Amino acid sequence: MRAYDILLRLYPASFRAEYGAEMRAIWGRRRRDAAGPRAVAALWIATLFEVLANATAVHWDILRQDLRYTMRTLAQSPGFALTAIAVLALGVGANTAAFSVTDFVLIRPLPFPQPERLLTLWEKAPEYSQMELSPANYVDWKQMSKSFDGMGAYVDTSVNLVGQGDPERIEGAAMTADVLPLLGVQPFMGRMFSGAEDREGAPGRVLLSYQLWQAVFGGDRGVIGRRVNLDNAPYEVIGVMPRDFHFPSRDAELWTAMRFDQHSDDFRDRNNNYLNVLARLKPGVSLEQARAEMGVIAAQLERQFPRENRQTGATVNLLRDEVSQQSRLLLMALSGAALCVLLIACANLANLLMARGLARQRELAVRTAMGAGRERLVRQLITESLVLALTGGAAGVLVAAGAVRLLTRLVPASLPIAQAPSIDVRVLIFAALVSCLTGVGFGVFPALRACRQSDLSALREGARAGGGHKERLRSVLVIGEVAACVVLLVSAGLLVRALWRIEATDPGFQADGVLTMETALPMPKYQETARRAGFCTRVLSSVRALPGVSNAAYISFLPMVMRGGIWPVTVEGKPAEAQRSGAHTASLRFATPGFFATMGIPLHRGRDIAESDGLDAPYAAVVSESFGRRYWPDGDPLGRHFKMAFHDRTIVGVVGDIRVRGLERTSEPQVYLPYRQQEGDSLIFYMPKDLVIRSAGGTGTLLPAVRQIIRGTDSEQPISGVRTMASIVEDQTASRAAQVRVLGAFAAIAFLLAGVGIHGLLSFAVSRRTQEIGVRIALGAQPGGIVKMIVGQGAVLAFAGVLPGMVLAYAAGRAMEGLLAGVQPGDALTFASAIALCVLMTVLGSLLPAMRAVRIDPIAAIRSE
Amino acid sequence: MRDTRPLPDALLPLPPATFHILLSVAEDDRHGYAIIQDIAARTNGELKLSAGTLYRSIQRMLEQGLIAETQDRPAPEYDDERRRYYRITPFGATVAQAEARRLTQLVRMARARGFAAGRA
Fold this sequence. Notes:
The complex is a heterodimer.
Chain A: H1 2-8, H2 13-33, H3 36-76, H4 78-107, E1 118-124, H5 135-144, E2 148-162, E3 168-175, H6 179-183, E4 189-190, E5 205-208, H7 210-217, E6 227-230, E7 233-240, E8 254-257, H8 265-268, E9 276-281, H9 287-304, E10 313-318, H10 325-359, H11 361-369, H12 374-407, H13 425-452, H14 468-503, E11 514-518, H15 529-544, E12 549-555, E13 566-570, E14 585-591, H16 595-599, E15 603-606, E16 620-624, H17 625-631, E17 641-644, E18 647-655, E19 670-674, E20 690-695, H18 699-713, E21 720-724, H19 725-732, H20 734-768, H21 770-778, H22 783-815, H23 828-854, H24 858-864
Parallel strand pairs in A: 3-8, 5-7, 14-19, 16-18
Antiparallel strand pairs in A: 1-9, 1-10, 2-3, 2-6, 2-9, 4-7, 5-8, 6-7, 11-20, 11-21, 12-20, 13-14, 13-17, 15-18, 16-19, 17-18
Helix pairs in contact in A: 3-12, 4-10, 4-12, 4-13, 5-9, 10-13, 10-14, 10-20, 12-13, 14-20, 14-22, 14-23, 15-18, 20-22, 20-23, 21-24, 22-23
Chain B: H1 16-27, E1 30-31, H2 32-42, H3 51-64, E2 67-70, E3 85-88, H4 90-112
Helix pairs in contact in B: 1-2, 1-4
């Protein structure tokens, strides 16, 4: 019989209480009637199935009843239902959106097989923890290491695709044949590079991205084997990669085999760092073991090449971790803010449900009196909370789906993933979990409390709803809301201040009115210096003649777009050893005359680069002020010599420093070399390709004219990357601006919800104290005094919330100091503004209840007692 | 409480267990076990309701107003105080009649198609 009792527990308690005894009695008879072990066994089996089926059916009946009842009661108080659903939708929506982006960038495995074993390898120098590898070191690392299944190298490239409609500039990567097998991907169509195709002299082969195949080749399946012209060299299309393949970054649209020239200078120079290296960890080898092995190999190579590999170590990272510290911090701040919003939403929901529980105490008491068990009441209230929670959650997912699109700016481009995170099953599960936890945690406990007190005392006419204890709990919730609101307001404020500070940073040049575009000249067509110079001079002289154009020039790379291009500097009289470290590097650029004037970079001393600075003239250089200060702190750098990029160079001019590495980072000093002194194809990476044009008019009329000039100079030369310098500077702060907008929106929601919370609590308090206030008015209390009393109550709540809020906000500020660009986490102005906003919120939140209190009719209030 | 009782036709067709229980309590006030025994006897032991099916049906039928618990109890020597006795309500009788009509029509149609012996 005990076993049957246990089975009976599957039925709802109310059903058991009603029919349990009779069911036991019936089952007892059946058991007695069963003769022999076989009959008993058959009875048990039948009973087991019968109980399972019937218990489920009874639960389902009750759920259906409860749902019907819930729909009816919610329809009777639509204001409550809509507020609760809206509050939940905001909380769940904010969190779901934050989760989907954070999950996408930080948590979800990369879209490759066994992504946890994919590593990136870097050289390490005292000043740089991550530096690309030189080809010679790469080959040695690859041969000497044993921790990896394979190692491959790649570089970002961009090539001119000619002969398929308009010439186009396409981003991509050149890679050794090992890279794609390492990643474990298969082409969508065709084949990958074979081992022989990354050797010198191998014929050109290219793999297309799915997107490029669609856009340029119209998705033609016959594209395999077709010849295309990349930078004037023939390539054969051997395959198309899958649609979701993005590597090394999401900009890459084609992949070529990298062909090493093992006998060139390029290959011998161990300081010529430009290779990105990818490796796959062998099964059973840990990341730590691989790091230790690479440390030993780097030390060995340092002994072998003491001069070139001085202080050169190895850094081994997971490919997954190639997310900057800033992106990580930014997403964590986002998640934290979303959590704050959720907490505030939860507190509001709990308050709403508690107030509703109190208001419904009479109804619950009536139902108890009519024989509904406590279990049935609780069950009914849980159903109600869950219906609210899941409806709110569903609305939250819609909010998130809209919000995710705004958050795509926060997805760093450095990861091999698509830009837009999608709302997938994981995200939906997350939203459902958050909704249910919110609904159960903040709906059921208030329900339980309400039930515990729903005895007959509530039926007494005139009984006041709610005890002091409950009001205290509700006050604590409102205080919590205010505190979370302060944290969000301060965090958003600090980030706004940081954004302003960065936007106010002088980039060192005048970005306004400068149009830029790229005309990367293909090799070997433009191998000769004179031919390149001819192209530049013809383009520049025609562009300068255009109406509205005040100046134009060519430069190797635009500031803030290309942050590298760093080269070691040697200055006579300084010990060579001290100069091998990163403290003696400078950013290297080749430029045409007029670059400084076009960009608005001030020329402090000496002269600009001149057309006469040719290969037959002494090697000249224009340097930035910080370069001069570094080597000749007390003297005039003009006329001094230094060695850089294979030649001894004389300083002919000093210009202002610019922020090559972007607004938020310190940049190396800059060295500009005359474009006519770039010999042949040496340092070809630095060939001037970025055209900058300063004009007074709009770009709309300028661009077609410039296109025509370039087509007229070389009809096969594509133009790419047309943008204004202003937009490049703006991009510097784009992800920050997006983040500020998101956090600002969160703070605004928090502000609104906390205001609603204060308003709700005080309204409830006023209605509860109607008689008391009536008596006070009857006894001669002035309206001003009543308002003061109610607003004062709100002010006490706000004050109690602001204090812990400030402490937490300071802690939050400290945690995200890395995002603050030097703004202090305890910034007084920000804190003062946040507090002022909280005061405003309190006053606004308590004003309506106060007005209602003043309008209480004393006679009516007292009579109702 | 509002009267949320549906129209008789809205409850049709009745689940077989419900119809049998209605027939059983139409004859006499009966407690749970007596209902099971009555049904078993009337169906020659073919339908033996389990306790779970019986009381789940009873609960639903009480809510639908088909049956009611009665306070009239038999003489103490025949009674067991744990037992509850049920009786058919006028509404329950209406529904049972409607169900019987429905079944009769059904059988008539089947006979007309030659599926069963006997008069139409």
